[in-house]
Amino acid sequence: MAIWKRPVPMLLHSRPAKVLALAAALSLSIVQPASSAKPVPGKDIFRFDTFGDEQLWTDTLRIHEVIAASVSPVAALAVGLKVDAEALPPGFLATHDLNDPATTVELIRRRAVVGLVGKVTGGRLRTLGVTCALCHSTVDDSVAPGIGRRVDGPGNRDLNPGAIIALSPNVTDAQRAVYNSWGPGRYDARFNIDAINGPVLIPAASGLQGVGFETYTGDGPISYWNNYVAVTQMGGHGSFSDSRLGISITQTPDLVIAKLPALLSYQLSLRTPPAPAGSFDSAAADRGRQVFQESARCASCHMAPTYTDVLTGPDPSVPLLHDPSETGMELVHASRSATGQYRTTPLRGLARHPPYFHDGSAANLAAVVEHYNQVLALGLSASQKADLVEFLNSL
């Protein structure tokens, strides 16, 4: 796969003052999860299954060597990696050097770095793989920024996956430049297929119940995308084929396909929490609901309760999609997909993950509303736009 023939980015040296100050003051008292908790197969897959992708991250990219040599916990936090505090004994972070890569290796050994799974023997990191949780989990920052209890489902908008890939000694300088151009919260799941640089925002893996299609372009149902990512992006040992994209990969044994049903079940269980009390103006949101349904005609595509119309076509197995010109979206990302179109994005919980649109071109909800006001010539007044923003904040 082309992407995995690429270069390796520069080592990380940034040490945010806030992280260092908080980390230095840590004296944790962590509540360990109950040992009697019933295992959830899909949850375990989501958090800890690499699908055999060590063949990429260890054998090809050699990221395990880079981590062991030069990635301290402080550097790891700086590129958006998260630490699961509940995987650590009390006092661990207060008694370990957070500027020492050996501490990162120990965190990986304890499965405390969200989305990374490694084999450590004799204090040496022998292998490294990544899991779904790398991009689609975060922590609640209850201990320090980037350190706390796991929260599965949100897209990790702090994560800089391009900078991590760029650390590999086996990527070219040209590839490294591309990876380092992505920035936090963005990833290009097509770059290794078509060599075009066009990263998009890392989406959430929660709030998908009833939606049916996960990608911005509706290429297939959720398990299609899980399979695509596991094999073509994570580097898992499995098979994926799509003639629309010209992809046909077969690897035996397949360590992916049998796990997709349980993985889907867990993802569908991840709900979007309601908007926090006091985070929006209730009276304005009530007025905004009417604007949403009538004046702005948003509800013609963003249909409650999922706030998307992707499953409303005559055949539920075929997504209802929209040409980029319908809503003023850019053409390139759609043209690189299997469909050439865009799905109507579900809106539940959208206030929690700015910026907006697949490319992050709208910095906030006011910018989203203004985009549609202009593209669709809605003629909304300033008060209508403000009320509409409050309604979107309430979802």
Structural account:
With 395 residues, the protein is mainly α. The protein has two domains: 2-201, no CATH class; 282-309 and 344-394, Cytochrome c-like domain (Cytochrome Bc1 Complex, Chain D, domain 2), CATH 1.10.760. The protein is 34% helix and 8% strand. Strands 1-5 form a two-stranded parallel sheet. The longest helix has 14 residues, at 282-295.
Number of extended strands: 10
Looking at the structure, what is the overall shape?
A: globular
> Which secondary-structure class do the elements indicate?
mainly alpha
Number of DSSP helical runs: 17
Strand and helix order: HHHHHEHEEHEEEHHEHEHEEHHHHHH
Assembly classification: single chain
Characterize this entry briefly:
By secondary structure, the chain is mainly alpha-helical. It contains 17 helices and ten strands. It has two domains: 200 residues, no CATH class; 79 residues, Cytochrome c-like domain (Cytochrome Bc1 Complex, Chain D, domain 2, Orthogonal Bundle), CATH 1.10.760.
